[in-house]
Amino acid sequence: MRTRIKVCGITRVEDALAAVEAGADALGFVFAPSPRRVTPEKAREIISALPPLVTPTGVFVNSPAAEVAEIARATGLRAIQLHGDEPPDVLREVRARTGAWIARAFRVRGEETLAEIPRYLDYCDAILLDAHVPGAAGGTGQVFDWTLAARATALARIIHQNNEKKSLCQAWREFVDTAPENTLPPGACSDNGISPDKGLLLKYSGEYFGLGRPMFLAGGLHPGNVAEAVRQVRPYAVDVSSGVEAAPGVKDPERLRAFMAQVREADNLYR
Fold first, then answer.
1. Average pLDDT, stretch 60-86?
2. Tens digit of each residue's pLDDT (9 = 90 or more) over 156-183
3. Helix (H, G, I), strand (E, B) or coil at 102
4. Catalytic: 177?
5. Catalytic residue among 8, 15, 124, 239
6. Is 113 exposed, middle or buried (0-12, 13-18, 19+ CB in 10 A)?
7. Does residue 184 or residue 32 have the better pLDDT?
8. CATH number at residue 231
9. In a domain? residue 41
10. Which of 2, 90, 190, 193 is at 20 to 30 A from 124, Cα to Cα?
11. H or E stretch covering 170
12. Is residue 8 among the annotated active site residues?
C-alpha cells in the first residue's frame, strides 16, 4: 500500500505547487493561531491553483462549526482536520454542515490519549496522531513515542484484511502466526501466540483502530526520520510541516523532494 503524504502549513502558491510536484496527496491550510495561519482569501487563491486530485484540508482548533463550514464553503476545502479539544457533537455538526471528510487529531501524551479515541469514531473518517506539547496545538516539530501507533496499526491491518468477523484474540493469533517476524511489534510473541501486552494491543488496536479509520502520523517528521516512521508504524498517511521548511510557513523544495523520496523508498522496502 502506498503511504499518502499531506504537507501542512501551506501559505504560498509556490509552496503548494512545489509540494504537488514533489508528490503530495493533500495540502493543509491552518485557520488557527500559528506562524502558518492563512486567511480564507489566501487559501482560496492557493486552492484555485491546485490540480483536482490534490485534497485541500483545513486545519481548525476549537472553532465553532458554523465558522468552519463558512470557511470551507468560501475556500473550497474538501477535508477538515480538527486539532483542538472538539467533542464528538462538534464533529457531527461540522460533517453535517460541510459534507467534508473529517479527521480528528489527538496529541499523544501516552496510553491515556488512546482511551479518548473510541467515542469519536462514529463522527470522523480518520484519526491523526501528533505530539503533545503543552500550550501548542500542533506544528511543534516534536516527535512522540511511535510504539503506541505501531502496535495499533499492526493489528488493525489484519482486521482490515479480514472479511469475516473474528474475535480480536483470534485475529491476533493469526497475525502472529502469519506475519513476517520483522513486521511484528515489540513483544508480539509468547508461548500461546498472544502478546504479553495483549490487553493494550487488543484494546487499542482492535477497538480503536480496527474500525476502518485511516491513521495519519504527524509530529516532528522530516526527511531524516520519515522512512523509519513508515517502517515502524505503517500509517495510512504521514503529515509534515516544519520538517520541510526553510522558515515557518515557507517550504523548501529540496526538503519536500527529499521527504517524498524517503517515503517512497520506505514503501518499496516495507509495504
1. 97
2. 454 444 434 444 445 545 544 554 444 4
3. strand
4. no
5. 8
6. middle
7. 32
8. 3.20.20.70
9. yes
10. 2
11. helix 168-178
12. yes
